[in-house]
Design goal:
Elements (H helix, E strand, L loop, with lengths): L2 H7 L8 H5 L10 H9 L3 H13 L6 E4 L6 H10 L8 E5 L5 H9 L16 H4 L4 E5 L6 H13 L1 E2 L8 E2 L3 E6 L3 H6 L5 H7 L2 E4 L10 H15 L9 H9 L5 H15 L16 H5 L20 H15 L4 H8 L3 H10 L5 H10 L1
The chain binds adenosine-5'-triphosphate and magnesium ion.
Length: about 375
């Protein structure tokens, strides 16, 4: 897809942005109105599918596994499921599985009795009990210690547990939503994640596409954030210039929506009162910015060629590897970045003998 193609697909005129300003700031629940409104205006078929799936499964008690890169909105989706569930008015309890040491995680999840271990000066009610009747959101589940994985699995199978240092069996009614930015299949193959737990949690599987795979929504989201932050700081901020929009639409967004949100928030703060947001207000770094036509002078623009070698063979391989790294080794996206067809890229990959551990597994997975 060429730059102009991507850009012209975004028909900004057709979006009724005034609605953004009319939406109440919060929906009364955990989500802002826009976050609930986004699926209705998203032009990305994957996103629309995700939300129609959510609608169908929200009211059940099925476990949900949400996978997606950092900043794609996994936590938001977990909240959206809860908001549409029959448990909407019940607790929504989050546990960050990566942040806690394995022993602390157990006591965090299941609680502990007074005196269970040194420092356990009082009885502690764990997250499972806190979430009773509601939803337990296990964030970053791919980073959970194997021994904790085993315990969680047992709880899910038996629907009951005991506090650390306790012998009373406690029964709870908890719906589990888990999220990870890791490729759990890869983790399972490496022995880092239990397949049985994966199957238990993965009753409903949601994959959130990275922002670079929903470019048709970039302008929409950027415009939403521009209005939101301008309203928050009570500033009159002009719209994005065409060049700015082109840069936004062509950036590869490794930090996804979070990165977009931050960039727009900063631009709103630094732009002059009443001025449009120009490319220089964007503070975007890296090759994407230049590739997308950013104004900052490259060394090459000044007549210097800042290349480690002029050997075309070597440069080609470097460009291919770098494009693959930037796109998470997705060949189709890397081909887009390189401006060649996926077929041509595939040929060059075998020519340069470039390999990646994920490819074999992905092809096995889709087989
Ligand atoms: N559809 C959306 N509309 C508005 N804001 C969004 C949307 N999706 C995500 N965001 C914003 O992007 C940021 C990242 O979202 P979130 O925390 O849900 O991502 P995540 O996938 O859980 O990321 P991580 O893996 O790093 O935890 C948040 O500030 C969130 O409000
Ligand atoms: Mg998150």
């Amino acid at each position: 897809m060429t730059e102009t193609q991507i850009y012209s697909e975004v028909d900004l005129e057709q979006i009724d942005y005034e609605i953004f300003d009319q939406l109440p700031h919060t929906s009364g629940g955990r989500l802002s109105s826009f976050e609930l409104y986004y699926p209705k205006v998203s032009r990305n078929p994957e996103i629309r599918k995700v939300y129609s799936l959510i609608k169908k499964i929200a009211k059940s008690n099925a476990s949900v596994m949400i996978q997606g890169e950092t900043g794609t909105g996994k936590e938001l989706i977990a909240g959206a499921i809860q908001a549409q569930s029959l448990r909407a008015n019940k607790p929504f309890v989050t546990v960050n599985c990566a942040a806690l040491h394995e022993h602390l995680l157990e006591s965090e999840l299941f609680g502990h009795e007074k005196g269970a271990f040194t420092g356990a000066i009082a009885t502690h009610i764990g997250k499972f009990e806190q979430a009773d009747g509601g939803t337990l959101f296990l964030d970053e589940i791919g980073d959970m210690h194997p021994s904790t994985q085993a315990k969680i699995l047992r709880v899910l199978q038996q629907q009951s547990f005991s506090r650390v240092g306790g012998n009373k069996t406690i029964q709870v009614d908890v719906r589990i939503i888990a999220a990870t930015n890791k490729d759990l299949w890869m983790e399972i193959e490496n022995g880092g994640f239990r397949a049985d737990l994966y199957y238990r949690l993965n009753v409903v599987s949601i994959h959130l596409p990275p922002l670079r795979e929903r470019r048709e929504d970039i302008a929409l989201l950027a415009e939403y954030f521009r209005r939101k932050f301008a309203r928050e700081v009570k500033k009159n901020v002009g719209s994005f210039t065409d060049e700015t929009l082109r840069l936004l639409c062509n950036h590869s967004w490794p930090g996804n929506i979070r990165e977009l949100r931050n960039i727009v928030e900063r631009a709103v703060l630094i732009v002059g009162e009443g001025d449009s947001i120009t490319a220089k207000d964007l503070a975007m770094r890296g090759q994407d910015y230049f590739a997308a036509g950013g104004r900052n002078r490259r060394r090459a623009d000044r007549g210097e060629v800042g290349l480690p070698t002029l050997n075309l063979e070597v440069l080609e391989k470097q460009a291919i590897v770098s494009a693959l790294e930037q796109t998470g080794w997705v060949q189709k996206d890397a081909a887009d970045l390189l401006g060649i067809s996926p077929r041509a890229l595939n040929y060059k990959i075998s020519q340069h003998v470039i390999t990646h551990a994920g490819w074999r597994k992905h092809s096995m997975k889709s087989a």
